[in-house]
Structure formats: structure tokens, C-alpha cells
Amino acid sequence: MKKLGIIGGYSYKSTIYYYEKIVYALRGQCDITIRSIDYTIFDRHTEANDLNGLRMFLQEAVNDLLMVGCEIIAIACNTAHIVKEKLEFGKAVFVDIVSAMANYLAKEGIRSALIFGTTLTVTVNFMKNDFDKKGIELISADDNPHFATLDAILCDYCAAPGMAPHTTLANDAIIPIFNMLERHKVDAFIFGCTELPLLCDGRQFEKKFNSHYVSSCDVHIESIITAMRA
Questions:
Q1: Strand pairing partners for 113?
Q2: Which of 62, 117, 119, 200 is the most exposed place for a label (fewest CB within 10 A)?
């Protein structure tokens, strides 16, 4: 079993989710190192759209994992993948959440998808190239006025220790955004933020909107497990 290094901490809640799912799937037969980054520094770089600063910050975390012998590296955050092409992983295998999603959707025969996530994730749309290569149209939900409310809830959830999963606030913010599914008639909708599945169960919307639900973190976790076993 290959040694895994996870860059987490944004947020710690989704990092714990990654850890629990991987350890459970492998029945504890795994060697995992978690490098938990400083949430406030990450936030500072993303708020200022300082991509070079973000790259250097994340590269430091990657280097720490390489130094302790990690053979596989994963970043447990969608937004951080905005600089994935600029990071250097040495001899380690980088399990990329964007490629994992694109491969999964292509395998499922999905040709169009609407993505929900943080403002930076959906406005910069850095996932588009990977999806285009697979012939999948990726549509952003950033033009919906309710999106700012969802973004604020995600930020609070990342920082607050006591916020319960699947909160009414999250559902109230997400449901109006889902009206976009009726307008776009896409094959799937993606929770492109690792905290979203912890806040709201996307499966509840599948029948209503006749669209396939995809959790980016769950797809990513499956890809990580496959890489560890290879």
C-alpha cells in the first residue's frame, strides 16, 4: 500500500471526512500523513486572488509531505486546485480532484454538468480544460444572486466548530440556485466544494430535477484509494 499525504485544513471538517473514508475503506491498512495548512493564510491568498502566493504556500506543504516519503499526494480542497498546474510533486503521484471528476463523469456517460462551489472555484472555472478534454460541458452557477449567501455559509462552516451538518440555512441557500438546473437541463450537478456534501445531501434533489448528483470529494476519495492500492 503506497503512503498517502493529504494537504488539508481548508476545512478541517472535510479533511476529517477524507481521513475517515479512506481509513475505513482500507480497513486501517494504510500509511497516511496529513499536512494541515493555516486556514487564515489560505483565505488571505484566495480573497486577494494572489495565485502566486497561494502556489508558494501550497508548494511548501507539498515539500513537507515529500520529505516524509509520501508516494501519493492529494489536496482535500477544490479551490486549491486553481494552482495545480504550477505545483511540483517530484516522484510522488498527484491525485487531482478535477481530473478525477472529469474521468468519473465521462465513464458515467455524462455530457453536461452544473457546478456549485466557492465563488473563486466557479468564477475562475479552472476545471474547464479537464472537462473539455472529456467532451463534457461545464456550466457555472456563479450568476445566481443566491450564490453569495451560499458562499458566506460555506465560509462560516469552515471556521465554526459547532455548525451541524445538513443545516436548514444551507438548504435554503442551495434550493433557489437549483432552479438553474431547470433552465440548463444538464445531465449532472456537482458539489464542487468539499464542505457542501457535509452541509447538504445532494441526493435529495436528483429526482426533483432529473439530474445526477456528483460529490467531488467522494469521487476524489475513490481515486485516492485506487492510487494507494495500485
A1: 138, 188
A2: 119
In the chain, the domains with their CATH numbers are 4-96+219-229 (3.40.50.1860), 98-216 (3.40.50.1860)
The residue-averaged pLDDT of 209-216 equals 90
At 12, list the grid cell. Answer: 478541517
Distances (CA, A) of 116 to 60, 67, 78, 213: 29, 35, 11, 11
Cα–Cα distances in angstroms (integers) from residue 202 to residues 159, 212, 213, in the given order: 22, 9, 6
pLDDT for position 150: 64
Q: What's this model's pTM, rounded to 2 decimal places?
A: 0.89
Confidence band, pLDDT 50/70/90 cuts, at residue 120: confident
pLDDT at 109 (0 to 100): 97
Contacts of 38 (CB under 8 A, 6+ apart): 9
SS3 of 89, please?
coil
DSSP string of 104-120? HHHHTT--EEEEE--HH
Residue 173's pLDDT is: 63
